[in-house]
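Standup notes
- DV: blocked on the single-chain target, sequence here:
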Amino acid sequence: MTDSQDSVITPPQDETTSGPRRELVVGETRYTLLGTAHVSAESAADVRALIRSGEFDAVAIELCDSRHHSLMNPDALGEQDLFQIFRQGKAGMVAASLALGAFQQRVAEQSGIEPGAEMRAALEESRDADLPLLLIDRDVGITLKRIYHNVPWWQRFSLFSGLLGSVLSRQQVSAEEIERLKEGDVLESTFSEFAAESASLYDPLISERDRYMVLRLAEDAAPGRYRSVLVVIGAGHMKGMAEQLEQPLPEAPHPEREALEATPPPSKVWKALPWAITALVLTGFAIGFSRNTELGWQLVVEWFLINGVLSGAATLVALAHPLTVAATFVAAPLTSLNPTIGAGFVAAGVELWLRKPKVRDFSTLRHDVTELKGWWRNRVSRTLLVFLTATLGSAAGTWIAGFRIAGKLFGG
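- DV (later): unblocked, structure below
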């Protein structure tokens, strides 16, 4: 990348845009950063006017491949194999994505403006003008994973329960939330109350993405490749990206960009923990039987009842089919002793077999999840709830039953 000495900032050439706009010339390329409001008809109009002006020969937008795909194909989830989602451990991420989509839909209903209109305008206008379209944002799934790994473990539950609670609430989206959306994006608005006070959250959510998007520009729209590039981003990213573009960037940005896409591997301790619990429980059974047969069977029965009842009862919360509840009751005590398969996977598999989602469920999914009862009414989202509740019930049952066994053996 060209050194910062070759970079200058020039003011906007006109006042035709309603939002903030900055122009930076790096080498032979002019980058025009257009700060948009994600809930604003004016921002969409700004994007259309600038692209139609003929000033630009490339357009870069604050979208990743998955968000671009969702924007172009709102029913994309219907093309996925739900069973594969559960097997690959992506159910939680899909549920979080649906919850974020529900927040967007609520904003659209209450403001009368569809969030992301300016991105859709950029897609349409760049296609009509036959301009290269560059997707420069980091994948939303990677950002959520990096947030998860960056915050202390004891904050994770409150963070994501707060996320789900806020997006599922049927309360009116406040004026303050709408204003935050006008300066950032859905992620920033949703996490705003945490991000302002938490560097561990702010870094992966905002500053890392500023850096990532500039690195993508350095790769896909390096100085000299295009004459003039329009960069459509949320207004909240303008300051950080402008500062990054003023500084020297690596000539080979790919390694640093890949580092910002990496997620820490699971801790060896956490990977070993399920196997350690299995070994301890089986050892407890062996000790019980070695003392007397009656104690051994008592421990086994309590293990099965505690695991089975808690997991089965948890699926009842999701209004699972009665056979799903029964299957979960039987499977949970066994899957808790086999770390290679979870009770949630079994429960979701049985629920899918008994209540296979219909075409209508996929077509109405994003609308259904905007209200709390819709999560239970739609077969797709209800199956996700079955998976999550069975998993949580089994985890609770494992720990409670484990302590119960330890108490019986060593508590006197």
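- Follow-up: The first helix runs from residue 41 to 52.
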